Amino acid sequence: MTSEQTLPRTAVVTGASSGIGAATARALAAQGFRVVCAARRTERIEALAAEIGGVAITCDVTDQASVDALAAAVPTCHVLVNNAGGAVGVDRVDGADLDGWRHMYDINVLGLVRVTKALLPALRASGDAIVVNVGSTAGRWAYEGGAGYTAAKHGVKVVSETLRLELNGEPIRISEVAPGMVRTDEFSLVRFDGDQAKADAVYAGVDQPLVAEDVADAITWVATRPSHVDIDELVIKPRAQAAAHKVHRS
Ligand code: 8X3
Fold first, then answer.
1. Which of 4, 14, 149, 221 sees the fewest Cβ atoms within 10 Å?
2. Is 149 part of the annotated catalytic residue set?
């Protein structure tokens, strides 16, 4: 066994300060990865990194200098989880707040591209890497008031497919994990600009929406398949959700 083989494999998780990102950082650490927790909120990721024996790097995926600094600190990366993202608003197309739509494209799509592009040398340096992009069922289905977000998450799906084509022949897998209804502390609260009642209404009467740990489990499963096994995409929803509009509520 070479010394390289005894070193822990490195995983980078963006948006690691809460929700699916934080749960994924914990799950990957439990699998023996040295996890680089990247997010804007330094205190949160420092606490998480201390908990899991990882590393905290403050990073805003919408800022090139910030992402360049992340890449400079990570010479080798075996697993990249592009999780940073989110939704703002539920405006219809005829009332679209273009600033909100631009932000959603910026964080969900361009952020993912910026981080992936910056870390490609580190992914290549690992000799065996996987990128897991956190998409959404919003990247499969349209729903009223959702177009700003669904357009961005369709973008995540298509960028993932394109990367898989472009990197074919290299030892880098590209996967997309696409969750449906996941109850986290922040996703809906951010979407509804801090309105807790509106955020709670999203999950009202739903028997067990997914939680962040469910998605983290799926991401970790995808990331820990044998190197020759590529999981292109994995759609994960609560049992109560059959489609965007088809959610069983008691
Ligand atoms: C979240 C799924 O249905 O709120 O990514 O757009 S949905």
1. 4
2. yes
